[in-house]
Structures are given as structure tokens and as C-alpha cells.
Amino acid sequence: MFYTNSSSARINVSSFSTHFVFSIVPSSVNRGGHGLAFTLSPSTQFIGAEAGHFLGILNKSSDGNSSNHIFAVEFDTVNGFKEKSDSYGNHIGININSLFSNVSEPASYYASGSAKEDVNLESGNPIQAWIEYDGMKKVVHVTISPSSVSKPSQPLISFPIDLSDYLLQNMYVGFSAATGNKSSFHYILGWSFRMNGAADALNLSLLPITPKERSSSSFKPQIKAILAALSVVFIFFFAALFLVVKYRRKMEFERLEDWELDCPHRFSYKDLHAATKGFKESELLGVGGFGAVYKGVLPTTGAEIAVKKISNNSIQGMREFAAEIESLGRLRHKNLVNLQGWCKRKNELLLIYDYVPNGSLSSLLSNPKTEFVICWEQRFNILKGIAAGLLYLHEEWEQVVIHRDVKSSNVLIDADMNGRLGDFGLARLYDHGENPHTTTVVGTIGYIAPELAQTGKASTSSDVFAYGVLLLEVVTGRGAVVHDPQNGHVTLVDWVIECLRMGRILDAADPKLNSVYDFEEMELILGLGLLCSRPKSEARPTMRQVTRYLNGDDLLPVLDSNQPSFLATTIKNSGDRFSLKDLGFLHYFLGVEVVPTRFGIFLSQHKYVRDLLASTNMSGAKDVSTSFSTSTSFQLVDGTAPMDSFDFRRVIGSLQYLSLTRPDISFAVKKFS
């Protein structure tokens, strides 16, 4: 509002002009009041100001102080006030730092020539006022008139004064009014203000209608005292209640101070509530084992987020989960769903993740409501991305992260159809070289590695097993557990094995692909899926080896069909004998009883055996024993009576997978000369 003279530190007040219309409506009881004032002040807060004749601007101690820096034009209706005030009511005055007017005039205007017409300020009728300060001539002009009269040519007051001596560089412009023993209602119906120029004229026809005279309640002093006392009691009660609630919220908010300091960005619950539209059901993306996930849009940045609400009544459980967040919040990889931050409210923990628009891989693979089909190229790229993410977790980050819940529903697909592994609620962290601890067996049926179910020890290899199931799931379009018409529910791994055993491995491909895929890549993924899902953890590849297979840097291990035994990858040759190892796994895998005999190995009759024999035109056999010679022939004997030989390759065509995926199956075989 002001500027500093370039040759002096003195403040020079700019010219200003204002035009406003006001109305003072007295109450029906205790008619009269103390009026209102147009003010220039250094603050919007008049600290310590009193009501009544002080007009809400000053008080007894501050009245007249040069440090007030207040300029006011008062429209005063008070009568008979004696304390340094003006001697008559219904007047207009210019005040500098005081309630005592430097100059004042009865409220009136020049109608024509020098004739004055009185104006009753508390008539309730609209009154126009013009206040103008000429910064060059150092003079203030004040003019009033009824709303029905145009601006008079002669001001009511012209007061020479240099406001630079009283005002500061920055001032606030406004109005103040007050009531006391006498009461009125004060209205500003229209107002314009301009620096260094004439204020805009007001269109009086557009101004609101002045409210009619209002009645004021007149309670007896006793009733007023009771109401005042009750008000004080209620104020103290609600203030105490507010402080107690605020303290409890603060204690709840700061309960996890130790880990909160190192966690990623903390979001306010207010922002998350607004982002998710109050966690509205229409924003619900899904519900998992740890809570519901909502889509949100941050009101401050417009960024899309996913908010997971985790309810946990156990504070210790929340502390353990928060400890994981402290580390997992620092994970950053393009194929992981990154944790942006968190929020805690009572017993709820809210986790904020990147929003991934295309949802989960499982919904895209099996959703019957959509006609969209992920093409082979996209599936292959997704699997490579998840492999890269797991490699980062297992080997490339500062600690070893075991995800423990790798599955298609935890793989989210972004806008570019890239796979991103999410949901680290079950993840465990270890230092490199440290052995995993025994924990409660968690995970999803069909993805749990055998050793995890037996020992409870999750490892990077158990993640590899789950990734192998994921490979088969993406290839086949089926879930980790498959319904088989003959055998009921079987794991996807065993279902693919059965397809391979029956010589129809490509029948496992997702029919939605309509045979549109790269056959070499299809064979690679099927073989790699079975390789990763071997029962023995030490027989599985690492994620680094997996990525090399997927990138074509290494070839999958392939058996030589001319080797004498295609079912034994753990055979130890000692002279003319082979060793027997882990025969129990043969029963686990084939349901076959294995008994060493002088003829070799005795296989009890079983459905899988019958199917294998049927595929080699030997369905008439009952109990059989098998022998392997150094040639490529397979000798079938019943008891001690040998039968005709036939080409062993036909059996191997159905069983060659076993040497890759089931190293646990070993045969004790006597080598015939």
C-alpha cells in the first residue's frame, strides 16, 4: 500500500479512495449503539480491544498511543459519552491512534451550494460514504449522502494531514463496529477500494436490501448470569475433553517412535481419507489376507496411489510388521510395487503403494468377464520382469529378502504391461550368508515348497519353487490347484507332469492363446517351470540362473537319450552297481512301491504304471520288474520269465521329464553284462 522514497527512509503514503454503502439498524430494545469505523491498521487482530465506545479497536490503556498506527473514520451514534469522546452523537470524525476525533462533524451532506441536510446514521436506511486521501496534497476528504442522492460535490470534512507520519509500510483496510449497553446491527452492503485512483462506483440497484429492524432479547440479569455461568462450565468441560482426546491421539500417533523415524514418508490420515473418498466401496480394488486395498488420488499432487488398510489389534504384531516396513520401504526396483509411505491411526496401519492400473495377473489370466487376452509376448515379458525383481530381492539388495508369497495375484500389471511383484506382508529379511530361521508355514496352497511344509524354513529356494508354479500358471492359464476329472484336485505341477507323461505337453498351453506363441519359448517356460518346482531344494536353480535361462544366456539342462538310465540323476556308479536313494519320493511322485530284486527293480501295479505300459502297447502286463542293460533296449520280465524286448525310447518319450524335475527318484539297478 505504501512505498519508500528513494532518497529517504521515510514512508510516503500513496493516495487511496474508497466508496461503500452501510446501514446501522438499531434493535427494538435498547435503541442506539456505538457505530462503526472505516480503519487502516497494521494488523487484522485488535488485541485487547474493548466493545462499546472503543468500537472494537482500542481500549483504555492503548487509547492515544502513537504506537497504535491506526487511522479511522468513525460513524458514531453514541450519545452522552464523556470519556475524552466527542460531545455529541450522530457524527462523523477522523481519528488518529485515539477515540478522540481530530476533527468531526454532525452527520450531514451538502445538498446544494452551502446548505446542509442532516443524515440519521441509525435510521436503518442505506447511507453512502466516500473517503479519499490525496497523497500529494496530504489531505483527507470524507463525504456522505443517502443512497438516493448522488455524491455531493463538496465533502463534509476536508482535513489536512500527512498520514506518512502515522502509518506503516504495510497496512490492512477494513471495518470495525461494536455494541454495548445500547445495541445495533451494522451492515456493509457494498464496498470498493482503489490505490492511486478513484474507487469504482457501486451499482446501488444490485446491493442487497437492508434488513428490517430486529428485536433484541432482554433477559433478566439473573438469567443472564446463569447462562454465563453455564457457558463457562461448558467451555471448560469441552476444553478439557478436547485436551484429553488430543493427548490420547498424540500418544497413539507417537507410540512407534523408534521405527517411525527410519520409515519412508508418512502420510496424513486426512489426505488419505480425501484421496479414497472416505474409503468408499467404489474405490475398493480388492481384499487380501492383511486388509482391503483402495484406489486413491492425492488431493495435493493428483498422483494415483493404492492404499492398503491393515487392521491389527496386537500392538506387538504391528511393531513386527512395522519393522519389516522400515527395511522394505527402501526397496526400489522397476519390477516391484514400491512402498511410498505409511500412516498409522489407532490400531490401523495404512500402507501407500504405487498404483498399478491393470490389476493383478491372476485376474487378467482367469477373469471370465473380460475378452482381453494377454498375448504370449506380454506373458513372456511379465515372467522375465518378475524374475528380475526376485533376483534383486535375493542377491542384489543390501539384505536377502524372501518374499514367501510369490503368486499370480501378487503380480500387478502396470500401464505398459510390465509385471511388478507386490504384497510384502509375509516377507522376511536376512543378512547375506545368514541361515533362515524356522517360522510358521505361510503361503498359498499349490505354491508352498515341500521342504517349507516339512521344516517351516523359508528360503530363496522356496521362492524359486513358487516362481516355478507361477511360470506354469502363466503358460497354462490355470490356477496353482487344478481340478482333474479323474483324480480330483491336483497341483498344477503334477497336472503338467501328467500332460508330459502322456506325451501331450503342448496340450498344457492356455487355449486362450489359440496356439499363437513361440514354440521354443513355450518349451523353455514349461521346462523351466518344472525345473524350478523340483521337490528337492538343492536341485532347483537360483534366480540368477533362471534369468540367464530366460535371457538365452544358458541352455536348460537336457538329458542324453542314449544314457542307460534316464530316471536317475543321482545315481552313483560303483563298479557294476548303482545306488538306491530316497525311494520314498518315488511313492510320493508316482505312487509306486519300489523293491530291489535279483532281477532289478520290482514295480507294483499302479494306475500311472498301467498308463505308461498302455502307451507302449504293454497293457497286458501285471506285476513287472525292470532291468537296464548298456544297450538302449528295455527288458520286461514277469517273475523269472523274460519277454520280448522293445525300444526303450518309447517309454523315455513319456518319462524323460523325471530326470530333470525329480532327482529324488533313484533306482537301485543291477547292471547286466
UniProtKB/TrEMBL annotation:
Keywords: ATP-binding, Kinase, Lectin, Membrane, Nucleotide-binding, Receptor, Serine/threonine-protein kinase, Signal, Transferase, Transmembrane, Transmembrane helix. GO terms for molecular function: ATP binding; carbohydrate binding; protein serine/threonine kinase activity. It catalyses: L-seryl-[protein] + ATP = O-phospho-L-seryl-[protein] + ADP + H(+); L-threonyl-[protein] + ATP = O-phospho-L-threonyl-[protein] + ADP + H(+). GO terms for cellular component: membrane. It is a single-pass type I membrane protein. ATP binds at K309. It is found in: Membrane. Its main location: membrane. Residues 279-590 form the Protein kinase domain. In the N-terminal section; belongs to the leguminous lectin family. This is non-specific serine/threonine protein kinase. It comes from Nyssa sinensis.
